[in-house]
Amino acid sequence: MKERKETFREWFRLDNAAVIFSLVSSPRIPALFRLSVTLKEPVNVSLLQTALNKTIIRFPYFRVNLRPGLFWYYLRKLKTFPRVEADSKYPCKELHVRKRGTFPFRVRAFQNRIAIEFHHSITDGTGGIIFLKTLVVEYLKLRGVKAHKVEDVFDISEEPSFEEYEDSYKKFYDKNLPSIKLPPKAFRLPYKLEKPGVYHLTTGIIPVKEFIKKAKEYNVTVTEFLVAIYLDSLQEIQFNFLKNKPKRKLKPIRVSIPINLRRIYPSKTMRNFSLFVTPGIDSRLGKFTFDEIIKEVYHFMRTELNDKYISQSIRQNVRAELNPILRIMPLFIKKLFGRLIYMGYGEKRYSGSLSNLGVVKLPPEMEEHVEDFQFLPGTNPERKVSCGVVSFKNKLYINFGNVSNSKELEKIFFRKIVKMGIPVKIESN
């Protein structure tokens, strides 16, 4: 296969979000997320490898290896091709991204399923789903399926643009905005951790129309409705765990929600470009009813999803990276402090996370060959459980990834949905 003329330089800097993930990546914090598609027939691994070889050339910013510099990690281009691997029982096991020649993602196959596990040093969920959809389209073309162009599927014959390559955090950084005050530490699930590499997956499959109808009854979006159910479930766990204990033991409950900033700013980057908002309730004030939680989430999301507040968050994150003292600090020292900052100043402020990638679409003639798409975000020892949501055709797929020894959160969450009269089909690894 002839490769297109090189458009990009041999190495480039990490984007602002990738910087922290490159420092903290470990067996306990793999910094991976997983996207998968299930086809209606077994995967031909040889054809999938051919499709992958063609697709990766269109995504040169993913055909890279994470390398250490004196002060920061950086990404160096690779000339080799990634190989399709057999899937494993547990998803999102550590990927040794710092090893020379290792791609910061892996493509896996098992029976009818194609899965890609991305390291956050190269992209976020939006960039990941575009890559997966493009790969699936190329694979199905090799199987003889014709298709029309559809949104968020790249034409592999086109040259990548420099806009896909940019660090949009720095592009939209405004140094003149004020700082943000950190919220207090949040309630965290009280369960014991499994051994590193053990990752329990629980999926709830729901008729999307019925879920949307119920969300509309509360006058909220699907994401807001999911967040309210999540907060209510965490509240139930906290009050049960601290039963007969003083109120001062209670802590605020917050759920971290990644926001795709490409919907707010004019960016076409394929690298990370998302930030988090954290709706929550303060359990120290007493137990909230579900209606009260709905109102809290509704008003919080409409206030925080304002470009002025988002710009302030971008400024906060980029300013830390541009700090003169931090910039001249050797990489080995940054690694020592990176995890402490990530866990202490970030993850301890959240009780959980929920990421909704929205509706996935393929060319109509190809959708009939696809059973489902699923999304599993990464987690860590503080948060323990993460939730990823995606909808395809008439189904909503809610995936919980869990590194603890308890599935109490998942049980309570789906039980609440069933009590609302919405059917849920449960699957697990």
Describe the structure.
This protein has 12 helices and 16 strands. It is an alpha+beta fold and 429 residues long. The strands form 3 sheets. Strands 8, 9, 10, 11, 12, 14, 15 and 16 form an 8-stranded mixed β-sheet that branches. The protein has a 5-stranded mixed β-sheet with strand order 5-6-7-2-13, covered by helices on one side. The longest helix is centred in the middle third of the chain and has 20 residues, at 222-241. This is Alcohol acetyltransferase. InterPro entries: Alcohol_O-acetyltransferase (IPR052058). It comes from Candidatus Heimdallarchaeum endolithica.
Briefly characterize the structure.
The chain has helices at 16-24, 45-58, 125-142, 168-171, 208-217, 222-241, 290-304, 307-322, 324-327, 331-346, 364-367, 408-419; strands spanning 11-13, 32-39, 64-68, 73-77, 84-86, 105-110, 113-119, 200-207, 253-260, 274-277, 280-281, 352-360, 370-376, 385-392, 395-402, 425-428. The chain is of the alpha+beta class. The strands form three sheets. Strands 8, 9, 10, 11, 12, 14, 15 and 16 form an eight-stranded mixed β-sheet that branches. The protein has a five-stranded mixed β-sheet with strand order 5-6-7-2-13, with helices on one face. The protein has a three-stranded antiparallel β-sheet with strand order 1-4-3, with helices on one face.
